[in-house]
Amino acid sequence: MSSNTPKAASFSLHTPNQARAPSKSLKDERSAYPSPRTTGKPAAGSSGLASSTVPRLAGPPSPRMKKGKPAQYDRFIPNRSDKDLASSQFNIARADSEQPLDGATIAYHEEVARACGVSINKRILSFKEEAPTSDRDDLRQVYSRPALKPSASTAAKRRILNTPERVLDAPGLVDDYYLNLLDWSLGNMLAIGLDQNVYLWNASSGDVNSLCQLEGDSYISSVKWTTDGAYLAIGTSDGDVQIWDAESQRRIRTMAGHQARVGVMSWEQHMLSSGCRDGSIWNHDVRVANHKTAELVAHSGEVCGLTWRSDGALLASGGNDNLVNIWDARSVVPKFTKTQHTAAVKALAWSPWQLNLLASGGGSHDRHVHFWNTTTTARLDSIDTGSQVTSIQWSSEYRELVTSHGIPHNHLALWSYPSLAKIVDIPAHDTRVLHTAISPDGQTVATAASDESLKFWRIFEARTKSGKPAKNGPLAAASAAAVGAGSLRSMSSSAASGTGSGFGASSTSDISRPAYIR
């Protein structure tokens, strides 16, 4: 072959022993070795001898071979076959030098910016305003914010002190879990039983008076005011129930019949219910001579908790047999009985803002407060307080309740309802808190303990119309009278001898006397 023969002709196939064929045999050789991309005879005059004559290895076809079907790739390996990498690298290299845009491109950019409502020279993805430059206003004025106004919840937040507002000595207080020796009347008179004596403390003036004194070996086992605060019922260790007129300090009648001490009582208008150590509950009609109208027997242990619901339809009782009984006023058989407590149930309290909600607390081996729906008889929730529960007081101002405790912590605990979150623990006494009573305005809780002290805690501070806590509590007048903390017994003795301020009608609220007590 002459030297002018094209180099492409050298790619024709031939065997080693065969002489090189002339150029006109290329067509026959192409027919003998067809291209894998064609099944018939190649078109006349086609070029590309190398691609048509070089055999290909068997394997998956190239993506370019299937023009009618899109290529599929693994999602982790991008397809760069249609990318001009050399051109991309060149564009990156000259990215620093801005190229001028032609008029058509500028007009298009302006049209898009106008349609999007943004400025042509402003960043689209901007998360905050530009920082001011030095030629603008003072940075202290630009970035200064007005002080945040306190929210209503912050402004109305009350302080609960862990120190008492007032402390009185209470010598001779019987250290007995099952007794109920403290009660606060609607007329702001506090009654407390100390051994054989009952003392009345006027929370408005600070005056203290001795109401009665038992004889012999008898002692006071319970006290309870009527709803209007005019009369006081006194239970004794002999099983008697006495009714006293607080204003005249005169005993009106004595209702005997119980075979053991009367540890708890509860009023419902003219009806007085009394719980006895033998497990019985008597209903007394104080208007008639034959006072006993019903006897409720369902407890096998001493009845130490007893309270009527505000509408007088249900009576709740708790005893040393670990039972809670709910009684219908028209029946002598319990409506239902709850057995979840594992210790004596003394603490019982009806909610003032939900009629069918009852809370009950157990003794030292139980330490739980259970909440009952007395309509469905279901237990709604429970709290493990960690201490002996001696009493429960609901707040009429807040959705809260306070529980008093004995061993081991001897404290007061404030709880939110229905979340049952603990708000505060108040270390109240050196020994177990035996009794509590709440003031008629619902702000102050009085506690009596076996350490022979009577303390007053302002826990449920009332809110004014503006939402802020009120400043004056029920003990403000007594503090102004400068009576001071002292012994109830000594102050009552001085009042009886004429040296004290004494007890008068002007020091209490004007309450009309009911006609049902004779």
Automatic annotation (TrEMBL):
Protein keywords: Cell cycle, Cell division, Mitosis, Repeat, WD repeat
Residue ranges with Low complexity bias: 490-509
CDC20/Fizzy WD40 domain residues: 168-457
One GO CC annotation: anaphase-promoting complex
Pfam families: WD40_CDC20-Fz (PF24807)
Biased composition (Polar residues): 1-20
Region (Disordered): 1-80, 490-518
Gene Ontology MF terms in the entry: anaphase-promoting complex binding; ubiquitin ligase activator activity
Highest rank taxon of the organism: Eukaryota
BP GO annotations: anaphase-promoting complex-dependent catabolic process; cell division; positive regulation of anaphase-promoting complex-dependent catabolic process
Family: Belongs to the WD repeat CDC20/Fizzy family.
PANTHER family assigned: CELL DIVISION CYCLE 20 CDC20 FIZZY -RELATED, FI02843P
Protein's UniProt name: WD repeat-containing protein slp1
Name of the encoding gene: slp1
